[in-house]
Amino acid sequence: MTMKVIKTVAEMREWTLSRKKAGRQVGLVPTMGFLHEGHLSLIRRAKQESDAVVVSIYVNPTQFAPGEDLDRYPRDFKRDQQLCLQEGVDAVFYPDEMYAPDHKTYVVTEELSKILCGVSRPDHFRGVTTIVAKLFNSVQPDTAVFGQKDAQQALIIKRMAADLNFGINIIISPIIRENDGLAVSSRNKYLTPEQRQQAAVLYRSLRAAEQEYEQGNVDPVSIKNKMKEIISEQPLAKIDYIALVNADTLTRPKPGTNDVLAALAVFFDKTRLIDNTILKKRR
Ligand code: PAF
Fold this sequence. Notes:
Elements: E1 4-6, H1 9-21, E2 26-31, H2 37-49, E3 52-57, H3 77-86, E4 91-93, H4 117-120, H5 124-139, E5 143-147, H6 151-163, E6 169-173, H7 193-198, H8 201-214, H9 220-232, E7 237-246, E8 259-268, E9 271-280
Parallel strand pairs: 1-4, 2-3, 2-5, 3-4, 5-6
Antiparallel strand pairs: 7-8, 8-9
Helix pairs in contact: 5-6, 8-9
Pantoate (PAF) binds next to strand 2 and helix 5.
């Protein structure tokens, strides 16, 4: 089977149009490359949901603040290409640049983009929604698949797709974890062996939150304190935030809220890791 590497928006649109004319459903998996098991699970999901799968690979500068890791973000297109081929991807959209030098337009999802990760990364989600809107307009897929690991991003993209009438089915696929529970992420590569070992504490704290909730403790403050206590046992871990919010709105959970999202961001030196779980009450 051949896999096409497409570099321009015009060619990308043409490719999708020809697939749609042939009655095929097109699925998109947007990525910043350096593919790992998490991305592969998104690709597999896209394959289940559509007849032709496009993976986009573009390290989007507008979602990085000055001083963040844009320059050192890991890149390996040859390896990504090989993985996509193995997974039976139909086309890789690999543009050199997505922004004209005189680019002036941004897409902002109000409120949702200013809380949780938006506090320490104020322009991050503006960059994400802008590039995802541009990718949607370039690829014009029927379906797009994103990971639950970026729970806030997933919710914001769903909101944006609905608000701007993209008519694209947004699918959110579960978190993939390493053996010790650490969520798979491109940024795990930055961790030293000692940091990597201590990073498993993120999942342990989320598991503790799940257990508290299952046992009937629905008090967000006491659950957050428990999580903080567990994370603080690891000397290299510096908590950015721990939050318990309504999983659909990211607002404060009211008594009786069904699904509560426990989300956190933790620094290991300059590396910021995020993770989350949905807390479900015992029925
Ligand atoms: O989740 C990511 O990898 C990125 O935020 C995305 C959605 C590809 C936009 O650059």
